[in-house]
Design the sequence.
């Protein structure tokens, strides 16, 4: 009998607890649903349509057309031009083989919708790599280049900075604060100031390079040339972000038990050996975390590009997110931009899954 | 025999001296490296602040030497011009209003959800928890465009007071409003996650004692857990503040006029309009200095927040 009463009371208490839980969680759960999960699902749905923001035509289901446009790549082989009378290969004044214009081939029906991405000359022929959205392909490559340089460089520098300020010497906290300060400065402000610093005529960076090289180097047209614009954005981005990873490494370093260093010292390990046999293995998870979060951050590159170069010159600094905003916002092609969003998400997911794999397989060893 | 002792002793002293010298050299080198690095990290901001007080002619004149970093002139002309030519006050108000509202609401909403997930027993708890953890992987950029589609068709109550009459109506889009920059960012999966982890570690005996005293779950959350949560509240507030204050992509997508435009976008727009570097740098300084001062005052908290964001990830 007591059991029945207790059971009844317990059930009621439990039901009350469940109601309270849902009430307390409701604002957050609702917010996450409407502003995160729903848009995420919508991105997938919209990517199969031709929805536009303002359009007189109704939205239609277009199947995989957006993905086809986004990802189609083809190779066109061009034969060198031949002199019709002599039958010899035509050469320009530098002795290079001459080829028909790629545009005339890409105009034909067979390659409808394709545009030149880049060309490769090899084995006496010219290969034109064409894509239906060459700008997206360039964006993708730019993102990979950016992260291939930024991730190892920024993580490595962050670790060096962390080692430097992880010493018990007076004033070290002042330096930590200084190295971290760009992280709290708005990226728009930093981008604007660095446009000035990179100025080819009066910018401080060119002035400095010319001063230390006694005028032999520079001035460089940092943001104005396709060769250096991405490098300029990379240098600035590392400068801005390295303090963040430094602090994460610092926390990792301070979590290493001091006993390990003492034991290594007893065994006669010198400073370099202690770094490679104690510090690095102990920091493994921190290193993987930093590398992956930096990679994902690198793929989100947008603000610097939008403020400093607008994707140019000649698409040298366009990125996936920048292209997505161009298409979805400035050209109002919501359906197409949603397809870019989905591809972007899949790339980020792939990076995260690789991280998971690496962490697990290493810890099993 | 005495001779050898003496020579030994002096040898020992010399050795100590050498070790000391080596240590001093090493320390000196360390400081030299740290100071050079400090210069690299500081020079753009120092240049920005110092130049914002110079007329354009002086800025360009000083660029050729170290005077670029020296306050050779102190004039507020650039600042006057910024206030005259732009809606700076409006942008500043917008940014402060949007960010403080988002962060404050977020602290309450996300901690309540985390409490329900960490401390209460209910059906579906594990499902909701694992969904939220899965949502952590979605970067904002991947949903920005469809979110634009969502907020463009959301209604918002409109209360108009005209001629002493209160009129109720409905707006049919959130574009170019404050709420579009606030409401979508209140609920945040990472904040919930940070609160959740903290609440798991608070001993349950505290809840049970309060339960015996007749306190309900909400009272336990508000009166017992919240006061204990100061470190995690600071972490969440700081991390959210940094992200929201520096947000650029979303305001680009959802604001049109200057009415609700935040500082970041105001800066970018002004940069696109004027060739006057003195004024641009004055604008940039006014955005940067308040945040830099807050950072310097609470730098320990800032750095601890960032450090914990890494450990938890």
Sequence:
């Amino acid at each position: 009998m007591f059991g029945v009463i207790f059971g009844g009371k317990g059930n009621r208490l439990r039901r009350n607890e469940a109601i309270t839980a849902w009430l307390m969680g409701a604002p957050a759960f609702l917010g996450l649903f409407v502003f995160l999960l729903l848009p995420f699902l919508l991105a997938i749905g919209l990517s199969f349509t031709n929805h536009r923001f303002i359009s007189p035509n109704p939205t239609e289901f277009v199947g995989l057309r957006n993905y086809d446009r986004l990802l189609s790549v083809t190779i066109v082989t061009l034969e060198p031009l031949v002199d019709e009378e002599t039958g010899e290969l035509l050469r320009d004044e530098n002795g290079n083989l001459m080829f028909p214009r790629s545009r005339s081939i890409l105009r034909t029906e067979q390659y409808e919708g394709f545009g030149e991405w880049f060309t490769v000359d090899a084995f006496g022929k010219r290969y034109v790599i064409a894509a239906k959205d060459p700008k997206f392909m360039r964006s993708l490559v730019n993102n990979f280049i950016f992260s291939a340089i930024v991730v190892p460089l920024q993580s490595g520098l962050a670790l060096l900075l962390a080692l430097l300020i992880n010493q018990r010497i007076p004033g070290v906290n002042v330096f930590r604060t200084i190295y971290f300060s760009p992280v709290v400065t708005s990226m728009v402000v930093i981008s604007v100031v660095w446009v000035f610093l990179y100025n080819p005529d009066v910018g401080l960076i060119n002035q400095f390079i010319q001063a230390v090289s006694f005028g032999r180097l520079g001035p460089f047209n940092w943001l104005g040339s396709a060769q250096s614009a991405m490098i300029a954005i990379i240098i600035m981005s590392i400068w801005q972000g390295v303090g963040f990873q430094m602090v994460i490494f610092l926390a990792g370093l301070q979590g290493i038990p001091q006993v390990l260093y003492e034991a290594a010292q007893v065994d006669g390990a010198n400073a370099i050996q202690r770094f490679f046999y104690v510090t690095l293995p102990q920091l493994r998870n921190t290193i993987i975390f930093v590398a992956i979060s930096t990679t994902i951050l690198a793929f989100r590159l947008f603000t610097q590009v939008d403020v400093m170069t607008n994707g140019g010159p000649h698409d040298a600094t366009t990125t996936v997110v920048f292209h997505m905003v161009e298409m979805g916002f400035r050209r109002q092609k919501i359906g197409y931009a949603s397809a870019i969003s989905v591809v972007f998400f899949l790339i980020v997911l792939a990076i995260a899954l690789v991280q998971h794999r690496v962490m697990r397989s290493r810890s099993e060893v | 025999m005495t001779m050898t002792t003496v020579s030994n002793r002096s040898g020992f002293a010399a050795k100590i001296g050498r070790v000391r010298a080596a240590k001093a050299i090493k320390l000196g080198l360390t400081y030299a490296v740290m100071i050079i690095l400090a210069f690299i990290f500081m020079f753009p901001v120092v240049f920005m602040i110092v130049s914002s007080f110079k007329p354009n002619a002086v800025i360009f004149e000083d660029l050729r030497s170290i005077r670029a970093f020296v306050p050779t002139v102190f004039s507020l002309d650039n600042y006057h011009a910024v206030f005259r030519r732009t809606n700076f006050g409006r942008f500043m108000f917008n940014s402060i209003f949007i960010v403080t509202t988002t962060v404050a609401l977020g602290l309450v909403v996300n901690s309540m959800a985390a409490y329900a997930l960490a401390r209460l027993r209910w059906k579906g708890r594990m499902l909701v928890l694992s969904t939220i953890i899965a949502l952590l992987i979605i970067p904002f950029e991947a949903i920005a465009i469809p979110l634009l589609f969502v907020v463009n068709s959301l209604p918002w109550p409109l209360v108009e007071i005209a001629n002493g009459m209160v009129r109720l109506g409905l707006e049919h889009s959130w574009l170019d409003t404050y709420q579009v920059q606030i409401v979508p960012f209140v609920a945040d999966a990472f904040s919930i996650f940070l609160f959740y982890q903290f609440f798991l570690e608070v001993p349950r005996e505290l809840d049970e004692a309060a339960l015996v005293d007749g306190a309900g779950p909400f009272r336990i959350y508000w009166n017992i857990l919240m006061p204990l949560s100061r470190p995690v509240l600071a972490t969440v507030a700081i991390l959210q503040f940094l992200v929201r204050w520096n947000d650029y992509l979303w305001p680009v997508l959802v604001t049109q006029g200057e009415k609700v435009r935040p500082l970041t976008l105001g800066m970018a727009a002004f940069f696109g309009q004027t060739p006057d570097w003195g004024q641009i740098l004055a604008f940039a300084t006014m955005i940067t200095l308040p945040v830099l001062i807050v950072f310097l005052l609470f730098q320990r908290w800032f750095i601890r927040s960032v450090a914990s964001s890494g450990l938890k990830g």
Notes: Chain B has a mean pLDDT of 87. Chain B touches chain A through 93 residues (CB under 8 Å). The CA atoms of residues 54 and 72 of chain B lie 8 Å apart.
